[in-house]
Amino acid sequence: MVVAKDYQYYLVVKRANCSPEVQTEPSNKRVKPLSRVTSLANLIPPVKTAPLKRIGQTLQRSISFRSESRTETLMPPRPWTRPAPPANTKRRDSKLWSETFDVRLGHQMLSSKEIKRQEAIFELSQGERDLIEDLKLAKKAYHDPMLKLSIMTEHELTQIFGTLDSLIPLHEDLLSRLREARKPDGSTETVGHILVDWLPCLDSYNSYCSNQVAAKALLDHKKQDHRVHDFLQRCLESPFSRKLDLWNFLDIPRSRLVKYPLLLREILKHTPNDHTDRQHLDEAINMIQSIVAEINTQTGESECRFYKERLLYLEDSQRDLLIDSSRILSCHGELKNNRGAKLHVFLFQDVLVITRAITHSEQLHYQLYRQPIPVRELQWEDLQDGEIRLGGSIRGAFSNNERTKNFFRVSFHSGGQLQSHSFQASDAFNKQQWLNCIRQAKGAAESRKAAMTGTSGQYCCCCSCSDS
Smallest Cα–Cα separation from 204: which of 165, 154, 238, 255? Predict the structure, then answer.
């Protein structure tokens, strides 16, 4: 039985590798190392990822999130990360418009500006083709075999793949329209009207992107199952994957979404001022920016809810209305304290929450480690390398063994006493991201307070007054 099942498994993977659609898979998707989470966010749980994840920028981080980012994006920057792709990632073979069609239309040579415009339109079309191929590949080479071999249940696969199936006909429609607009000589006169008519369809991305945080969390959890891990590893090593893992394929739609504004601006850039396409292109750019911003907001709120639901409280006194009322997760990630303990810190809209990551009911949860700290009362200080000593002692200089780097401190007054926490980031860049996030959150909190009280809301962000 074991041999037969393994052989069946092998045949499924082999068929996926040899299928004609798979052989022609092209693409040069890049995955940036750092992703931001500010609204679409971090789309994913932080374990085994970069220490700081910013929320609210989820979508953007990918422009590509790809950030992997330290990336990406339309929304406020958020630091989060995604696993780096395997070395030697294979890329799709790609051709320029001028390599596919004759730059001479009739007996007249096109201007360099018009050639660039046709290249930009062609890139938009080819990107749709590549996206469709990748989405079909994700279903044919990953979803269907895992379902057939009972590697995952149908419910689990539905959670991980979300509404991916519904995106395929949507992009097939755009590709068909762009091809119909292409003249026999390969040139395209106008695309703006096509985009204005088609872009509202992207509202369907709301549900897909909002599901990504939960999808990534479940996928990471399922990878602990040796059958799932083995299947995904075999796929990764197969030619059809182009050295991209399953999550790379599942995240491609989001990456494409945040790339549309750049693609349309490139077309507009090379479109003459008196061209009939300019007005529609301007309208299309405004539309896609609004769509991406709205999806980013909803995704960020979804991510915020996801993590709030996974907080575990040791006692009722740790519960805080500021956590319950938060709709924005500014950033989160793993930090160490000055004793070397790993902590997972969440900076919500109005409160900083320090936790320990634990496994509870076979799922990753976050147990509160200290009392939540209201952002309005939070002060921070950038510590110089070597200023803090492991174990808690502060001195000006130490031996090389005692010297520490990338520390910062947060403090606040509670019950008339000053409490502080020293955190160590993974590197100087990550530390700066945390400090920027805290500074922005503090400024936003002060602005909200000022709006409510009618005061100026000035606050001090200098290190000298952030700790006593």
Answer: 165
Q: List, for residues 299-327, the tens digit of each pLDDT value.
A: 999 999 999 999 999 888 888 898 998 89
Domain made up of 312-465: CATH architecture: Roll (2.30)
Q: Is 40 helix (H, G, I), strand (E, B) or coil?
A: coil
* pLDDT at position 434: 93
Highest mean pLDDT among 75-84, 259-268, 310-319, 424-433: 259-268
Stated pTM of the model: 0.70
Quick one: pLDDT at residue 361?
74
**Structural domain boundaries in the chain:** 2-291, 312-465
Helical H runs in 335-458? 428-453
The torsion region of residue 306 among left (phi > 0), alpha (psi -120 to 50) and beta comes to: alpha
> Sign of dihedral through CA atoms 18, 20, 21, 27?
positive
Instruction: Name residue, tokens 């700081």.
Output: 52
- Is residue 66 within 8 Å of 83, Cβ to Cβ? no
Task: Give the CA distances from residue 197 to residues 200, 237, 437, in Å, rounded to whole numbers and listed in that order.
Answer: 7, 41, 38
Q: Which residue has the tokens 């294979």?
A: 90
**Cα angle value 249/250/251 (rounded, 5°):** 90
Torsions phi, psi for 363 (to 5 deg): -130, 150
Please state whether beta strands 379-382 and 407-414 pair in parallel, antiparallel, or not at all (unpaired): antiparallel
CB 422 within 8 A of CB 388: yes
- Cα separation, 378 vs 350, whole angstroms: 10
Which residue is listed with tokens 């077309």?
267
Tell me the per-residue pLDDT of 165-197, one tens digit each, with 9 for 90 and over: 999 999 999 999 999 999 888 889 999 999 999
- Among 2.60.120.430, 1.20.900.10, 1.10.3210.10, 3.30.1330.10, what is the CATH number of 2-291? 1.20.900.10
DSSP 243: T
Look up residue 450 and give its two tokens: 């000022």
Q: Which residue's structure tokens are 């930009």?
A: 120
Nearest Cα residue to 152 out of 247, 232, 239: 232
CB 349 within 8 A of CB 328: yes
Residues in CB range of 430: below 8 A, 6 or more apart: 50, 51, 52, 79, 333, 406
The type of residue at 88 is N
User: Please, which residues have CB within 8 angstroms of residue 224's CB and are 6 or more apart in sequence?
Assistant: none
